[in-house]
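Standup notes
- DV: blocked on the single-chain target, sequence here:
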Amino acid sequence: MKFDTRPSILNISTFDRLPKLYCVKDCDTITDDIYHQFLERTSNQRRYKLESFHHKEDRLRSVIAEAIVRFAICSATDLAYKNIAFRTGENGKLFVCEFAGDFNISHSEGWVICGIDTSAIGVDIEKIQPIDLNIANEFFSSLEIDELHSLPN
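- DV (later): unblocked, structure below
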């Protein structure tokens, strides 16, 4: 039996208009073959950036991030996937000239999310891990430490 190992882009929005939120989970587990299929459709700008990544997982997430942004913009406009051209703004943030809206991406531990809207949008995803509150002793005042420890878990 052969399984489809391609990541699925999930529209987790509950409405048809913008803003929309898309996510891909388990993108760190895609095969090399699928990765290269995505890579073939990736911009030269992204390919150049990939060379600076030391970890395979970072390259996978980056390629998936571009694919999900392209998918989101195609879904919101009549632009063709291959006609989406990314540019870098003064602040280093990517944008698409032909798209009047905004997008933002975030990734963590195999997840990639993308938010898209007609105005500024920000998204963030982070793996929840236990926090060692003892680090606060190095940076916080005793009053702040007491207040921190008095908070419910």
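- Follow-up: Confidence is low (pLDDT under 50) at residues 1-5.
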